[in-house]
Structure formats: structure tokens, C-alpha cells
Amino acid sequence: MNQLRYLLAATALAGACAHAAPANPLSVHVLNLQDGLPSPGVEVVLEKQEQGNWTVLSKGVTDAQGRIPALYPDGRAWSAGTYKVTFKTGAWFAAHKADSFFPEIPVIFKADGKLPHYHIPLLLSPYGFSTYRGN
């Protein structure tokens, strides 16, 4: 009976850990709609609007899966506000010897602080893009 209780408790704990909020409050993901694959090597810049000006908080480059799982800077408290994530798509397309209409794609969003994590996916093609609030 003790083994059953232990197993049930371990299963519940594992499920809770699997659904815990990520430690970093911001992640991004870039997928290339032209071939349906992730877009590794896209430079991404995070800024916050402060007193009418944009302040750079961090920069990163998408990994092999087209992700930056922790774009918000370590050691800085997350706060509500208006943020801008800029995907440097022109350089990425040029590196892949492809033309593109968009040299960069800025995504401006308002974080109200009610969510512990914000995810910004970008669906990319040479002449169009789509984004949304992910989770």
C-alpha cells in the first residue's frame, strides 16, 4: 500500500513539474512557412518602452529548432509594460540566398503581468508573416 501511495505521489509531482511555468518569462519561435521547417540563426532583439523610448533589454539568436527559450534577461524582474521583439529577417534570408520584402519584423505587444510567461511565435515567408500570442 505504501508503494502505491509513493507511486501516486510521484506521478502527481511529475505532472505538476511538467506543467510548471518556465523560469524565463519570454520565449520566441520562428518557423519558415516556405518549407515548413524551423528557422535557426535568426537574430532577435528585445526592447521595452520606457518614457516613450525603446530600451534594449537583450539579444539572441534562434537555435536549431528556431527557438529562443529564454529571451528576457536573467536577473531582471519581469514587469508589465509595452515590449518589442524585432526579428532580423533580412539578414536571415540573405544568408539563405533568398529575397525578402521584410528586412526586419517588429512585434510590439503589451504585457499586463497577469501571465507568468509570454511566447511570441513568428510564421515567416519571404513576402509575408503571421504572429500571435502563444503559450
UniProtKB/TrEMBL annotation:
Its EC number is 3.5.2.17. GO terms for molecular function: hydroxyisourate hydrolase activity. Residues 21-135 form the Transthyretin/hydroxyisourate hydrolase domain. Belongs to the transthyretin family. 5-hydroxyisourate hydrolase subfamily. Residues 1-20 form the signal peptide. Catalyzes the hydrolysis of 5-hydroxyisourate (HIU) to 2-oxo-4-hydroxy-4-carboxy-5-ureidoimidazoline (OHCU). This is 5-hydroxyisourate hydrolase. It comes from the Bacteria. InterPro entries: Hydroxyisourate_hydrolase (IPR014306), Transthyretin/HIU_hydrolase (IPR000895), Transthyretin/HIU_hydrolase_d (IPR023416), Transthyretin/HIU_hydrolase_sf (IPR036817), Transthyretin_CS (IPR023419). Keywords: Hydrolase, Purine metabolism, Signal.
